[in-house]
Design goal:
334 residues; TIM Barrel; eight-stranded mixed β-sheet; alpha/beta; globular; 19 strands
């Protein structure tokens, strides 16, 4: 355990200042994220140097389609999460405490050494929620940056402004889950709220982090096309027209096993709405072979990157420009 970076003592106990949940913990209590504990009036992180998952992934799996395509990312996660999504894909570790999982002993410097040894261009803090292992993410990312390794965060973006602004300078890219555009759905489906996530998107964009956004379309929850349009209009109006948006197909899992998978036509409708709203790079995920996995030039509409799942075919982007018409293509290409 190490002391947490963001907390304050109150008459009712130690109050965590890391995320909008703002847990207040009495002596010995553990926060909703399962990674923060009050010990003698000090908030400690239980998630430091003890990842329960370590893998080498293609960067496209994050998903990041405009950030070092074709490269490999050393991906790590500890147990815990500050949300409780009914459709969580990694609930076996996200809804556990680090005290309940089988963990590796891997301090920040060792993570960076492993990334160098395995020839990974980036380290991804992913699978669960890197916000809840904030101190581990921050310390590792700082060392990685000094070693020339990029840092990638895959997150729901449910974090307070001050810790986010401290983290951004060591994060190169992020994929943020924008789970819906309804506060009510956020509360019932994810145990969170919408506004902090929108604030996170704005801050990361302003701080120069390369951003991509994922919207998982869950039948009966986030498949309202009026809400999809509202979301896309907000993104365009707030300067995210060059930010890749990934509509991802839901498959029945965890507490939503009785729902059907997202129909293909619903994904296609969402894709059309986003393009009509002015978003330049719109993708459909979890549908193998769909043409909307590929990258197209927003000007001449030629295919620039051919993808089959996480594998790349031909790439027609040179010096960040379309090889056919010279249009600037937003992203981090080398």
């Amino acid at each position: 355990m190490i002391p947490a970076k963001y907390f304050v003592e109150t008459p009712k106990g130690v109050k965590c200042k890391l995320c909008p949940t703002a847990c207040t913990l009495k002596e010995g209590e553990i926060g909703d994220c399962r990674t923060r504990k009050n010990v003698d009036g000090v908030l400690y992180s239980l998630a430091y140097g003890n990842p329960c998952a370590i893998h080498i992934d293609p960067i496209e799996k994050k998903p990041l389609n405009h950030f070092l395509p074709g490269s490999r990312s050393l991906s790590i996660a500890t147990a815990g999460c500050n949300l409780a999504c009914l459709n969580c894909q990694n609930w076996q570790i996200s809804q556990k405490s680090p005290e309940e999982t089988n963990n590796y002993d891997l301090k920040p410097g060792s993570v960076v050494d492993m990334a160098v040894e395995k020839k990974c261009k980036s380290i991804a803090y992913t699978y669960t929620e890197p916000i809840v292992y904030y101190e581990y993410t921050y310390d590792t990312a700082k060392i990685a940056k000094e070693a020339g390794i990029k840092n990638v965060m895959v997150s729901a973006g449910y974090i307070e402004e001050r810790p986010l602004k401290e983290l951004c300078p060591v994060i190169d890219a992020a994929n943020i889950d924008l789970k819906s555009f309804s506060n009510e759905i956020y509360e019932m489906l994810n145990a969170g709220s919408l506004d902090p996530v929108l604030r996170t998107l704005k801050i990361m964009k302003d701080e120069g982090v390369w951003l991509e956004i994922t919207n998982l379309i869950v039948p009966d929850w986030s498949d309202d096309m009026d809400l999809v349009k509202k979301m896309c209009d907000w993104l365009y109006d707030n300067g995210f027209e060059n930010t890749p948006l990934h509509f991802s197909r839901f498959t029945p899992i965890y507490k939503l096993k009785r729902l059907p998978a997202t129909p293909f036509d619903v994904l296609d409708k969402a894709h059309g709405i986003a393009r009509s709203a002015g978003l330049k790079f719109v993708y459909i995920g979890n549908v193998l072979g769909h043409t909307a996995q590929d990258t197209f030039c927003p000007k001449c509409e030629k295919r620039l990157i051919d993808r089959q799942g996480y594998r790349l075919g031909d790439v027609h982007i040179k010096d960040s420009k379309c090889e056919y018409c010279g249009e600037q293509i937003a992203g981090v290409w080398k």
